[in-house]
Each structure stands twice: as structure tokens, then as C-alpha cells.
Amino acid sequence: MRIILLGPPGVGKGTQAQFLIKRLEAVQLSTGDLLRTAIRERTELGRSAKKYMDVGDLVPDSIVLGLVGEWLAEQGERCVIFDGFPRTIAQAEGLDRLLDQMGKKLDRVLELVVADKTVINRISARRSCPVCGAVYNLLSAPPKVENVCDNCGREGLELRKDDRPEVIANRLRVYHAQTEPLADYYRQRGLLTAIDGDQGVKAVEAEIKDVLDA
Ligand code: AMP
Q: Which pLDDT tens digit goes with each residue over 18-68?
């Protein structure tokens, strides 16, 4: 199975991806995580991506598609949850081509819909570990010990540079202009289901479960 989670930053795609991974024994493709790892490891790709990410713009399609192509080729027959990819029509077309070449298809696109105001409130409570990239939310999913990463023990969680209010405003602009049109792209292909992302995590999980069971 191959499922895309579509929705603005902070809507809960990463959280729902974790639920789907357990349920479907899937692997997650988060292009944001792949790019952040490249930045932490100071690779050439990381260096070229950083300037776009720091200001909330999209990394060029050619870079992202190259990364995804390599990653997908390594996954074999495993179920894949796409989180934060595709983000443009060109990426969606690129994904169609990649899957075609592999003799595979997309099963469903779940669009998590949420108001911009909710996104801004949620993201300002988000903190992440600068060492391993684990993500917390001070309100809904805080670390066990205040300001210490559960995953790697690092003390000092940070507000990601691109989670600052001025950058979030641009990320939302970019989402509406470049990524939201994907909802129509997949609706026309009969693949889209819209889900209210303004509800609690468990309620969203329940709706997704209903869609998968249908
Ligand atoms: P995310 O963690 O998914 O919110 O992504 C953080 C940032 O990484 C985005 O604001 C973009 O700058 C970049 N990024 C992640 N995924 C993509 C993608 N599919 N296409 C272009 N840029 C991306």
C-alpha cells in the first residue's frame, strides 16, 4: 500500500504517519526529515537545501525527486506512507512516473484539513531535538523530562528555525499556493479523502481507520 498524507505544516501528518506505520507495518517517507538529516550531516545536498528551508520556501523539485527516487528504490515491497511529499504538481507527476517504472500505484491520498490559525498555535508549541530530530509539542506531547529529549537524552530542545512565526507565515503561503492544488490533482484521480484535522489526534486516527477499512 502507498498512502500520501497531504496537509499544511503542523496539521499532524507526522503523528498520523506513526499510527499508519504501526497499523500497516509501513515505512515513512518524510522528505523534511531526509533533508534535515542531510543538513545535520553537512552533505552537499544538505547545503543546497538549507537556504530554502530556513526561509520556508520549497527545495527545488529536481533535488527532492532525486532523493525520493533513491529512497523508494531501496524499499522493495514495503508499504509506504508519504509525509510532506509531494508538495508540488511537478513532484506529484514525478512520483507517478517513479511508481509507474516500478510497476506500483498509489492507493489513497488523505488530506488533513485545518485552519491556518490552528497551525500557527500548534507550531509555536513545537520543539525538536537538534541532535536526533525527535519532535515534541509542549501542549499535547511534551518530553518525559522537561527540556530533555526522550530519544537521545540531549538537554535543550529547540524551536526549529523554520517554526518561527515569520517563517511559518511563509510556509503557509507556500502551502496554499503550491501544495493545496494537489488536492484537486488527486480528487480528479479518485484518490482523495479529506479529513478534519482540527479534531484531537485519536479522532483523526479513527477517521483514517474508517477510510482504510472501507
Ligand atoms: P516539513 O518538515 O515537511 O514541514 O518540511 C520542512 C521544510 O523542508 C519545508 O518547509 C521545505 O523547505 C522542505 N521540504 C520538505 N519536503 C519538501 C518537498 N517535498 N518539496 C520541497 N521542499 C520540501
A: 999 999 999 999 999 999 999 989 999 999 999 999 999 999 999 999 999
Instruction: Name the residue of 162, 175, 182 whose CB sits within 8 Å of the most ligand 1 atoms, as the mutation to test its pocket.
Output: 162
Domains (ranges, CATH) in the chain?
2-26+79-213 (3.40.50.300)
C-alpha to C-alpha distance for 95 and 109, rounded to whole angstroms: 13
Helix extents (H) in 41-115: 44-55, 61-73, 89-101
Q: Round to whole Å and give the CA distance between 178 and 182.
A: 8
Please state the pTM of the whole predicted model: 0.91
Q: Which residues line ligand 1 (CB under 6 A)?
A: 9, 31-32, 35, 52-53, 56-59, 64, 84-85, 87, 91, 162, 171
* 164 belongs to the catalytic site: no
Q: Are strands 2-6 and 80-83 parallel, antiparallel or unpaired?
A: parallel
- How long, in residues, is the chain? 214
**pLDDT single digits (tens) 93-135:** 999 999 999 999 999 999 999 999 999 998 999 999 999 989 8
